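$ ./design --mode recover --in tokens.txt
reading tokens...
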């Protein structure tokens, strides 16, 4: 079906989705927590919160403590808080454990499948290290009050059986070198991911923060899709879950503002390379029918005072298979376990 662009620049399906599938949970005042608890009990749900963490000793403890105190102990909305230690070189694991999280080293999960670097690798392994049928993912470097994030993300999953995957969206201030700007964060989103997604998957144009690190889904959907091992994981999940769940199975929640620690431009350049190659690997044919051959290298340049120096980084799209196809995972699930092993 050829969709005529409406005045808003989004295709009618994307605009309809944006208008009907975007809800607001910008503070706890907007969330009916007792209703969520009732829905959780009625549905017999178990909720896991996963925090992928690489060298996050400065922030992971506060996040975990608030999650555990507020949503495990005081209000039993969450059943387990699991930090996936992604080859940290600092005290991330100790700090997270002391704050009340179950901490699992990514390398210790499904060891027969080896250990790869990357955020997506940590998230893929989290499926085998958790037991909830609903899983919430949060970055471990978030700053400020994020206590409403988990109930906000769970609301569509607990109140609408048609929804399988929910992404948070937010404004994104940017604080770098002591300068604080109310906007400007999400640099790879704005300069890379959004333009490419709009060009290749315009039905996803309604997602305000396609790269956002806070999202939640049903295990039954998450275990059906591959997880890109690098920073390509968010766009990979979005595109693959669109295929599995359909646009009507996806939703987004306005969580207000998101502040986090920021990486360097060069690090974001590598992230962008990983994201571009993830998207190209999924866009099997471009708009002109040319077969796209996603590369395996991204070349960036530094300057040594006399000349530009090329630096190439591998951005090949390594990914793990749908967890449902992993034999050991089925054994873990049959045993009702979500443990390292
Ligand atoms: O190899 C990695 C890279 C990142 N992360 C975690 O993934 C989240 C997002 O990563 P980062 O903050 O580096 O990305 P940004 O938010 O700056 O885009 C954070 O909790 C990281 O600790 C991880 O677990 N393993
Ligand atoms: O949205 C973005 O452009 C990047 C970088 O954000 P900033 O420019 O540092 O605010 O941050 C996200 O991208 C990563 C790749 O998808 C996610 O893994 C991160 O959770 C998310 O913060």
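writing sequence...
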């Amino acid at each position: 079906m050829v969709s005529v662009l409406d005045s808003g620049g989004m295709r009618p399906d994307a605009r309809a989705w944006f208008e009907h599938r975007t809800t607001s949970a910008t503070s706890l005042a907007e969330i009916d927590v007792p209703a969520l608890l009732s829905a959780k009990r009625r549905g017999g749900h178990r909720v896991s919160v996963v925090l992928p963490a690489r060298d996050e000793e400065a922030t992971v403890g506060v996040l975990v403590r608030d999650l555990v105190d507020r949503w495990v102990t005081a209000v039993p909305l969450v059943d387990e808080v699991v930090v996936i230690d992604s080859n940290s070189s600092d005290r991330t694991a100790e700090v997270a454990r002391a704050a009340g999280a179950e901490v699992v080293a990514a390398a210790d999960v499904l060891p027969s499948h080896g250990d790869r670097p990357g955020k997506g690798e940590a998230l893929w392994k989290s499926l085998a290290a958790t037991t909830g049928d609903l899983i919430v993912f949060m970055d471990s470097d978030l700053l400020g009050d994020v206590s409403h994030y988990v109930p906000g993300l769970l609301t569509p999953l607990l109140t609408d059986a048609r929804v399988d995957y929910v992404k948070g969206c937010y404004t994104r201030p940017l604080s770098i070198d002591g300068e604080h700007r109310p906007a400007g964060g999400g640099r790879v989103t704005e300069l890379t991911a959004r333009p490419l997604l709009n060009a290749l998957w315009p039905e996803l144009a309604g997602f305000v923060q396609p790269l956002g690190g806070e999202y939640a889904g049903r295990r039954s959907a998450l275990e059906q899709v591959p997880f890109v091992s690098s920073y390509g994981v968010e766009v990979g999940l979005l595109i693959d879950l669109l295929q599995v769940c359909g646009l009507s199975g996806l939703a987004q929640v306005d969580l207000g503002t998101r502040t986090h620690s920021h990486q360097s431009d060069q690090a974001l350049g590598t992230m962008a390379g990983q994201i571009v190659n993830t998207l190209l690997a999924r866009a099997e044919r471009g708009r002109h029918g040319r077969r796209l051959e996603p590369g395996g290298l991204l070349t960036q340049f530094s300057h040594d005072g006399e000349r530009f120096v090329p630096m190439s980084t591998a951005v090949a799209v390594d990914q793990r298979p749908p967890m449902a196809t992993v034999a050991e995972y089925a054994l873990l699930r049959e045993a009702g376990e979500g443990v390292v092993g």
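exit 0
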